[in-house]
């Protein structure tokens, strides 16, 4: 199949390969693309790969214009969850995949998409033919000739945006958009980035585990693995980013909880570098003899990082495409024609662009278009404990609380989770952190008389504890809409909100997802998870919520 004849007229050329194998075919395709002066500006390859953890994996490439997504899932399931418009299918090693995949191939096929096949069964050829593919006489090449109209491609966006918020969410948004050639203005009321919820000394990065591999687990796994790869490209933890991939040991709460964790370990094939269950002797040996009465999960690739250093690395990666407007105070947001305008308290325009991304956490409640979203501001106080008052840990230790290894002579312990709006350090919150720390260490005298020191931040939390990623809904115009895709949206207005206590992990991946949505690219996440993050989910939930007693006529 001559790729050159196909991709020369397309701004993005997307290939789906049913078997990644050792990657040789992908490397050949990339080489052909690289050497063709008439190539499409963007090559996007999606391939099934059976030696990765379940789900979608976006593998950022060093070469501009090339994107690689690897999917660990059966063929039919992968295609059913794919949000993309595919120009070329390479189907091989699928003799035992049945025929249900054919309708999903047709759903994601671009007009005149090409198909290259090897060893298809007669039933598979018939199923693809019934979906609109016309095969050559050799039965190995086909073209999608369905007369069903394809949804029109969205118009190319004007690549200028304002990002409101210079914390972890906003910095990630700026970096992912600038990487695609956008001009971005980051606006923040504070004089420096990462001065609010992203200003802690240490944030913990680690995955989640669950017996049913539920939505938060799958989302956090995808975001965690993406973050590890992304941070390496930004210079690495312990180098460009302040922190340490020292590992995290998550202790079981009690014997019953440990039994559940053992069942997860027995039921799933988790790579040991991702998660390994340690029984009490192994866990206590790791901790140098500290008690671990019920064992725990060791996440070897996890650790801690200073969020502000992650923000700095992402903003620095933007280069000359980024403009910083910091220390502007509170701003007023208005839509004027095709542009969003941000003005300061004196009525002076701070920034103007056709696209606006709200990445300002709890501050989004002050934006009229975002005010109907059910976001809550929750206070979190971290205690800074002198390192000589607690045992020296080789890993981050956590259960209901966490304790980091020392950095600059200080360990971070916390954090509280309450609705108190007071930004000042609270002796009661400090005492709560120290009490939980003592329980974590099984030492009633640990950090005794530790001085009041730490930091308070305010998390932005949604009712379902999942982030909000995508175009913001227009609640007033929603009417009786029952489907996410039909919910009316504010033009050019997007949200990266509700990160709760997982912003360090979620930020980069959520920004990548949003940038892909805006650009009309294949999405790096299963469609069911994309829907679970859609801010418009709260429009539908509000409509479906039971209504109270109605007055009698």
Helix proportion range: 25-40%
* CATH level-four homologous superfamily name of the largest domain: FAD/NAD(P)-binding domain
Q: What is the oligomer described by this structure?
A: single chain
The CATH class name of the largest domain reads Alpha Beta
Large-scale geometry: globular
Strands in their spatial order, largest beta sheet: 3-4-2-1-5-6-8-7
Structure description:
The chain is of the alpha/beta class. It folds into three domains: 3-144, Rossmann fold, CATH 3.40.50.150; 162-197 and 308-375 and 462-544, FAD/NAD(P)-binding domain, CATH 3.50.50; 203-306 and 378-455, D-Amino Acid Oxidase, Chain A, domain 2, CATH 3.30.9.10. Helix content is 27%, strand content 26%. The protein is built from 14 helices and 28 strands. Strands 3-4-2-1-5-6-8-7 form an eight-stranded mixed β-sheet, with helices on both faces. Strands 14-15-13-23-24-25-22-26 form an eight-stranded mixed β-sheet, with helices on both faces. A hairpin with a 5-residue loop joins β19 and β20. α6 packs parallel to α10, α6 runs parallel beside α12 and α7 crosses α12. It is globular, with a radius of gyration of 25 Å. The termini are far apart. Residues 548-553 have low confidence and may be disordered. InterPro entries: FAD-dep_OxRdtase, FAD/NAD-bd_sf, tRNA_S-uridine_synth_MnmC_C. It is an enzyme of class 2 (transferase). GO terms for molecular function: oxidoreductase activity, acting on the CH-NH group of donors; tRNA (5-methylaminomethyl-2-thiouridylate)(34)-methyltransferase activity.
